[in-house]
Amino acid sequence: MSSVVLPGPAARRTGSRAGKRLAAILGPFVQAIVVTLLVVVITFFLIRTLLGDPAVVLIGGNTGASPQRIAALRAELGLDKPLLVQFLGYMAGLLHGDLGNSFQHPGTTVASVVVNGAGVTFALVGVALLISCVVGIGVGLLAAGGNWPVFDNVVRVFSLIGLAAPGALVGLVLILTVALGGRLFPAGGWGSGYPDNFQYLFLPAVTVSFWLTPIILRVVRTHAGEVLHEPFAEAAAARGMSRARLMLRHVAPNCAGPVLAVIGVSLSYLISGAVIVEIVYGLPGIGRAMTTAVGSLDFPVIQGIVLLTGAVVVVLNLIAEVATRVIDPRAAR
Questions:
Q1: Which of 34, 73, 218, 279 gives a 20 to 30 Å CA spacing to 57?
Q2: Which residues lie below 8 Å from residue 171, measured CB to CB, with a gap of 6+?
Q3: Residues whose CB falls within 8 Å of the CB of residue 104, separated by 6 or more in sequence, listed in order
Q4: Is the CB of residue 180 less than 8 Å from the CB of residue 187?
């Protein structure tokens, strides 16, 4: 008789670990797909349930338009169909990459409206994120590695102000002091192209980063302080490694995981803050497009903007989560 060889404990443990790693990586992907679908469904039904009738707004509100004219416009926009039929048609268009056409500007695709504004918004978010990481990580490492009580107190005060101050107020203060008072950067508007546009992005990016920088700073300062008391860090210091080299070689890499986690959680707030700051500085981004679309009840444009920003947040959050689990496997447990 032939004997059956069963896998040993070591093989079973190896397979179990591999399964856990695969689940840790695939889990966020499944969550991302589910969240994106929920964003599409909730946005579609909410704006049609809570907002008014786009046909009435587009015709001019209470201008005495006949019911026949309103009904004809509703039929032209496809709003006379049952809600479920409208939703299925919208989903069929999404599967083919079609976001529909704007109600307010017939013949103009939603994709063109969204893409034009998204370039400005995501450039603003990218520069703000860069400023937040550079300042937050740098100052956080200095606060954790140095023995300067005065500097530490200044950092604490700055963190509290940054977390408490509204973005619109920070923007107005920067416009009055830096732009109008110091004439160092434009007070608002937009240029004709890059690299000229970076001078228009700087103050809005600083305004957006004013909230995220203290969060990254606190995370780095706290985590770096814990790493400095780890046995390997104390052993490196005992061998004569300089403080600066210790911070850069051992402490900073160990702070990468927590920083990525914070960025992933904060992305939605960062984008929503950027939309508000765009209005303060008069930037032609998603904020302006969304304000115009909401005012005219342009449902397809509203849906397109929400879908794009939601998808970007989900994807970037997914990247941050997967990167965190790769850097620190303990995060997947």
A1: 279
A2: 203, 204, 207, 277, 280, 281
A3: 58, 292, 293, 296, 298, 301
A4: yes
For residues 275 and 125, is the Cβ–Cβ distance under 8 A?
A: no
Beta bridge partners of 109: 101
According to DSSP, residue 178 is labeled I
Kindly write down the DSSP assignment for every residue of 242-270, as one continuous string. Answer: -HHHHIIIIIHHHTHHHHHHHHHHHHHHH
Q: Model pTM?
A: 0.77
Q: At what angle do helices 110-145 and 198-228 cross, to 10 degrees?
A: 40
Angle between helices 256-281 and 167-174 (to 10 degrees): 70
Largest separation between any pair of C-alpha atoms in the chain: 94
Closest to 48 (Cα-Cα) out of 258, 301, 297: 297
* pLDDT, averaged in runs of 10, over the chain (333 residues): 50 54 68 85 86 77 67 83 88 86 84 86 90 90 79 83 84 89 85 81 91 89 83 81 80 82 82 86 87 85 87 80 66 51
Residue 264 token pair: 């992933």
- Six-digit token string for 283: 């930037």
Contact between residue 163 and residue 214 where contact means Cβ atoms under 8 Å apart: yes
Spatial separation of the C-alpha atoms in residues 127 and 285, rounded to whole Å: 14
Tokens 């695939």 found at: 26
Alpha carbon distance 37, 278 (integer Å): 28
Place of tokens 């903007």: 305
CB 208 within 8 A of CB 267: no
255 in Cβ contact with 223 (< 8 Å): yes
User: How many Å apart are CA 145 and CA 236, to the nearest integer?
Assistant: 14
